[in-house]
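Researcher: Quick test of sequence recovery. Tokens follow.
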């Protein structure tokens, strides 16, 4: 077919024409301080994407486009391949897929091999890439969501769609090894490097989008709209598509915090925006600045027992939590159960902006690194807000899950059930950090977390680095005891877990 031939010949030229984001294009998505960081971190991967949302039978059918990635080898060694993650191909996504075509490296057709059950694509580089040298990898892609997705991610229905992991993302790396862990039925699948993206996204008529980063919308001749999205320092760029929401805004230290809910949910929307703004302010002051100019909190169906989901600059809250909080009077504190759930999940997801987005980690192989810390941080926000027993409720979660006392440091696949995973990593994990805080006092404990953030900001860190830092900051005896009992679960007793949740003064 001549047309096809012509298209195939033209494709490399079209891909090369895709713009990579410049600092000036990324600036609107950053605070003033964030723009300074951008100038200092020029070597992070840069990604240009053009894509369009396609409809069929009244719902989103797929998201198709092409991307151009410029990747600079951070070293220390030379590299002979580059890893892109195709996470929606994982079995937990229940039939969703991410297909690629026309793969090229520096404008030439490239060979590749698939690993990790179709979720990791290793692209061969024509020659070893020296530390500090850059390569460009381009491809076309098509992301097809399924009815449920995984925890509501990569799903589509007549009520809207949520796209997460929707384009080939540059994999994270620890100690020179690509992170290629296979997504599991429960837990997150995130393990990317931090990258800068600029996306041109065409939406059909009648569909609105809330996105990570900062988006500017312009009308298209067909009645649809074209979004130009700037997304610096991103781990995953999430797109939530819906016929329409209402939003409520707050401003915190140069960042606009925006909650997006349906027309019946103004009261829970107020609670969400205030919990997000309050937790953002507190976490930034304690752990390190939030560099982005926006934080969106948006309601969408997640299901599978997930209350919320984090992504860079955007968190999703499951619709069931929002509906449950409709009848709690707006001025009431977080002491009633629906209000507590909505605020604690919102604060938890906002805490992930530090423990997942700023400090990246391998959520499949070492989920305790971000989730235990995130669950403590969300509970700490509620404590600071005056909730009488936030850790008591975490203890209750631990008891309900069957009081599992085994090791926290293991991959998702090594937990027998979702309840065991939740009980050990989320509930006991939060209480582990609370026990450490009670032992060493607020100053030393918060100093530890701030240093964890500072040392690994915009990088990927592993559990060994976290254990090492605890030893450096709090001394070998404290670190050894914490690691043995709380991380490895050796000799830990129910009495110790209960004691961690109790009130009473901390060591000064
Ligand atoms: Zn989490």
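Model:
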């Amino acid at each position: 077919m001549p047309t096809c031939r012509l298209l195939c010949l033209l494709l490399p030229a079209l891909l090369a024409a895709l713009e990579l984001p410049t600092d000036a294009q990324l600036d609107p998505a950053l605070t003033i301080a964030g723009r300074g960081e951008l100038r200092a971190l020029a070597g992070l991967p840069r990604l240009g994407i053009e894509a369009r949302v396609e409809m069929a039978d009244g719902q989103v059918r797929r998201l198709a486009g092409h991307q151009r990635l410029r990747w600079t080898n951070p070293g220390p060694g030379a590299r002979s391949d580059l890893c892109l993650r195709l996470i929606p191909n994982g079995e937990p996504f229940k039939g969703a897929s991410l297909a690629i075509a026309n793969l090229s490296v520096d404008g030439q057709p490239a060979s590749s091999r698939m690993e990790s059950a179709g979720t990791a694509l290793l692209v061969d580089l024509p020659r070893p890439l020296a530390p500090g040298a850059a390569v460009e990898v381009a491809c076309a892609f098509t992301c097809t969501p399924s009815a449920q997705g995984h925890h509501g991610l990569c799903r589509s229905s007549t009520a809207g769609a949520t796209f997460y992991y929707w384009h080939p993302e540059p994999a994270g790396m620890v100690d020179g090894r690509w992170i290629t862990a296979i997504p599991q039925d429960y837990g997150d699948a995130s393990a990317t490097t931090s990258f800068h993206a600029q996306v041109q996204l065409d939406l059909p008529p009648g569909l609105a989008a809330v996105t990570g980063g900062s988006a500017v919308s312009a009308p298209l001749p067909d009645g649809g709209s074209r979004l130009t999205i700037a997304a610096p320092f991103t781990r995953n760029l999430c797109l939530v598509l819906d016929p329409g929401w209402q939003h409520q805004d707050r401003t915190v230290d140069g960042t606009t915090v925006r909650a997006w809910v349906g027309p019946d949910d103004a009261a829970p929307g107020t609670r969400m925006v205030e919990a997000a703004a309050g937790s953002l302010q507190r976490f930034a002051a304690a752990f390190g600045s939030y560099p982005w100019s926006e934080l969106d909190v948006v309601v969408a169906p997640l299901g599978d027992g997930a209350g919320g989901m984090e992504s860079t600059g955007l968190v999703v809250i499951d619709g069931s939590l929002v509906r449950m909080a409709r009848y709690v009077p707006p001025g009431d504190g977080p002491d009633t159960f629906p209000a507590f759930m909505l605020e604690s999940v919102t604060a938890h997801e906002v805490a992930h902006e530090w423990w997942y987005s700023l400090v990246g980690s391998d959520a499949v192989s070492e989920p305790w690194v971000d989730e235990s810390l995130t669950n403590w941080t969300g509970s700490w926000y509620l404590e600071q807000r005056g909730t009488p027993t936030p850790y008591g409720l975490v203890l209750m979660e631990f008891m309900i899950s069957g009081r599992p006392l085994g090791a926290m440091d293991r991959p998702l696949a090594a937990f027998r059930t979702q309840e065991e995973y939740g009980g050990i990593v989320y509930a006991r994990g939060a209480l582990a950090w609370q026990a450490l805080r009670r032992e060493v006092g607020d100053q030393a404990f918060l100093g530890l977390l701030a240093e964890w953030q500072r040392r690994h900001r915009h990088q990927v860190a592993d559990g060994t680095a976290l254990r090492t830092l605890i030893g450096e900051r709090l001394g070998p005896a404290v670190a050894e005891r914490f690691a043995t009992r709380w991380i490895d679960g050796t000799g830990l007793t129910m009495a110790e877990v209960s004691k961690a949740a109790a009130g009473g003064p901390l060591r000064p």
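Confidence is low (pLDDT under 50) at residues 1-15.
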